[in-house]
Amino acid sequence: MGLIDSHAHLTYPEFEGRMEDVLTRCTEACVDRVITIGTSLSDARKAIELAERYPTRIHTAVGFHPHEADKVTEADIAAMADLWDHGQVVAFGEMGLDYHYDLADRGNQKRVFVRQLELALGRGKPLIIHCREALEDAVPMLVEYGFANQSVVFHCFTGTKAEADRIAQQGWRISFTGIVTFPKSGELQEIAKRYPLDQLMVETDSPYLSPVPVRGRRPNEPAHVAHVARFLADLRDVPYPELVEQTSANTKLFFGLR
After folding, report:
1. Among 250, 253, 124, 244, which residue's Cα sits nearest to residue 196?
2. Which of 258, 98, 247, 86 is nearest to 173 (CA)?
3. What is the pTM of this model?
4. What's the rounded Cα separation, in Å, for the pair 9 and 65?
5. Which candidate among 20, 93, 182, 224 keeps its CA 20 to 30 Å from the CA of 12?
6. How far apart are CA 195 and CA 141, in angstroms?
7. What is the pairing mode between strands 58-62 and 89-98?
8. Across the beta sheet with 31-38, what order do the strands follow?
9. Which segments of 39-160 does DSSP mark as H helices, in order?
């Protein structure tokens, strides 16, 4: 069983015309599958097309990223909800709130997040949450709209132990990117060291966040999720093949992959 990169952006310009090479490097690194994320309506359609082209290698999740919120209309939201019924879509998102960059009005971010939550409830697929410096708003919103103890992952988690505990208390999980390999990520490493093995998932968030030992390389690629996994295996003092098998099994179960 090979690795699964649970969160990447293969539709971004950095990968245009390079998909065969990207997937070849995945094979060389024993990365079997990638979940590519569509973050706007046009990007979601591209992500689905990519998953259709490589159905055994690429899956997709689609939703409105909070950075897009100022541009999203009610018609756009309805169109995105229609895409959620596509067979290649394994999750909804990434969606959420971003108060770090504030690239969209916070009121609009909440509006678009809430509408996605309303439409996602009861559809039976997981949520992928983007949350930066906004946990105080995001958690109550998820609870209010019925997602306590549902399949929810806060991707690219970089918060504190208290924040990780708060997420876990609601029955949700977090996933780890190359940031966990950075020398100054001590608190994140402590969280990852003790994180339940049967919930652990790894991702690249490529083309961003290249992990050590390829930090600074652009673009980051899904093949580099192997560096994240190997770092976590060493950190947790477990054999690398065991961590690969467990994270892949966790990801398949969480996203309903066959």
Report:
1. 250
2. 247
3. 0.98
4. 12
5. 182
6. 25
7. parallel
8. 3-8, 31-38, 58-62, 89-98, 127-132, 152-154, 173-174
9. 41-53, 74-83, 106-120, 135-144
Check: CB of residue 250 under 8 Å from CB of residue 200.
yes
Q: Rounded to 5 degrees, what are φ and ψ at 32? A: -80, -40
CA-to-CA separations, 190 to 117, 161, 184, in angstroms, rounded: 31, 8, 12
**Residue matched to tokens 């899904």:** 222
Handedness of CA 83, 203, 4, 24 (dihedral sign): positive
Element (H, E) at 123: none
What residue has token string 């192997």?
226
Determine the Cα–Cα distance for residues 78 and 186; give it in Å rounded to an integer. 42
Q: How many residues does the chain have?
A: 258
pLDDT of residue 107: 98
Answer whether 169's CB lies under 8 Å from 196's CB: no
CA distance 139 to 153: 12
Fold of 3-255: TIM Barrel (3.20.20)
* Matching residue, tokens 């673009």: 219
Calculate the dihedral angle through the C-alpha atoms of 75, 45, 229, 154, rounding to the nearest 10 degrees.
Answer: 0
Indicate the average pLDDT of the chain: 98
User: Please, which pLDDT band fits residue 1 given cuts at 50, 70 and 90?
Assistant: confident
Q: Is 229 helix (H, G, I), strand (E, B) or coil?
A: helix
In angstroms, the CA 212 to CA 210 distance is 7
Angle between helices 135-144 and 106-120 (to 10 degrees): 30
Of 96, 8, 89, 4, whose CA–CA distance to 45 is shortest? 89
